[in-house]
Write a structure and sequence with these properties.
Radius of gyration: 28 Å
Largest sheet: none
Number of helices: 5
Mean pLDDT: 79
Order of helices and strands: HHHHH
Helix content: 55-70%
Number of strands: 0
Distance between the termini: 61 Å
């Protein structure tokens, strides 16, 4: 067994003590967590300035062009989710039209319910496409980094 260290520990006066960080003030148990692994990104990258982001319709057009490029890129394989989701979305939109316009025509309820379901189906399709476009951008970024220069 080793002998305890007999050197005196310096004490700090209240004026010399460092102020607790905001994180420790809000979450006092944060100091008990282990440190993050080496290479972990603790803060997201800075977003572009609002002035540099561009106009909404220009961004929308760029997204549409990227989606067309993604679908016709022979080196990129679209995920099964996207392969199944878009024909399913078209079928659901057609089924929604026939259910509320032909088979279940209630004067006030049907048009409202049809448009609400259309909006939900389109949002689902948008989320699937956005996720697939993020994946495609990551693949393009990876290919740009490893390409021979």
């Amino acid at each position: 067994m080793s002998e305890p260290n007999s050197e005196p520990v310096p004490t700090l006066t209240p004026a010399e003590q460092p102020e607790p960080s905001l994180t420790n003030a809000i979450l006092p148990l944060m100091r008990l967590l282990p440190p993050p692994p080496v290479g972990t990104i603790l803060a997201p990258a800075d977003l572009q300035d609002a002035a540099r982001r561009g106009w909404f319709l220009a961004q929308l057009w760029a997204e549409v062009r990227l989606a067309m490029q993604m679908y016709f890129d022979p080196q990129y394989r679209i995920s099964r989710t996207a392969q199944i989701a878009f024909p399913l979305v078209v079928a659901l939109l057609a089924l929604n039209y026939f259910v509320f316009s032909w088979w279940f025509p209630v004067p006030v309820f049907s048009p409202i319910a049809e448009r609400l379901l259309d909006a939900l189906i389109v949002v689902l399709a948008y989320r699937v496409l956005a996720r697939e476009l993020d994946r495609y951008r990551a693949v393009l970024d990876y290919l740009a980094r490893i390409s021979v220069r």
